[in-house]
C-alpha cells in the first residue's frame, strides 16, 4: 500500500479485549495479556489477579517496595523464559507525563505490562539551495528492535532518573556525536502518540519531537553502536521512502510524517490529510 496513513494504522493496531487492566492503588497504569495475567497468580504476595484486572498489593505501599517486588517478579519471568532478558535500564511507571512515579520497571518488561512510556526523537535537517535535506540513520543489524531499519538522527527512550533535557543531551552525544550545546539548540515541536500491540504485549508510547537545523559541514558520528551509517537525503526522497515502503522503523514513520506536515510538504488538499494529522496524536 503506497500511503502515509498505513503507518499510523500499523502503529495503532491492538485489541484490548485480549488484555486486563493493570492497576496500582486506584490508578490504571497498564495492560496485561490474559495468559501473562494467569501466569502472575503464582506471585500472590505481589499481585491480586482477577478477571477484572491485576492489582499490585496494597501492602506494597511505597515506591521502593513496589519497585523491589516488581524486580523480583521480573527475575523470575526471565528465569522461566517468559521475558528473554533484562535491559538493566529502568523506566518510570506513571499515570501521566510529569506525574510522580509509582514505581520503576526494567525497560524489557514495559510492553509485557502495557506501561505508558515516553521517548524523544530529533529530526536533524540541513537547508540547501534545492530545499530541505534530512539526516537518516541506518540501524545496526545486531539491534534487537528493527535491525537494519532506517531511523531518525537521534532517538531514545525516556528512562527513570533523567530529565528530558538530560536525556536529550545524552542521546544526542551517543547517537550522533553532538555536543551538549548543539543538542540544546534542538527546538521542541510537539509530540506523537500511538498504542501498538506487539509480540510482548502493548506499547502505549508518546514521543517528544525536536527539530535541529545543522550546518552543511556537520557529519553525524555514532558512538553507542546503534547506527551503522548516516545519510543526508533530500526531503522528497525521505517522503517517498516513507510513503511507499516499510524501510523506516515503525514509529519513525510517524515522526517523519509529522515533520512533513509541519514543513508544508503534506497539504490539506491531500484527501487523507485530516486523518494523518489527527492520527498522529492518539489518546492513550
Automatic annotation (TrEMBL):
Taxonomic classification: Bacteria, Pseudomonadati, Pseudomonadota, Alphaproteobacteria, Rhodospirillales
Species, as recorded: Skermanella cutis
Name this protein carries in UniProt: DUF4743 domain-containing protein
Residue ranges constituting the Nudix hydrolase domain according to the UniProt record: 117-258
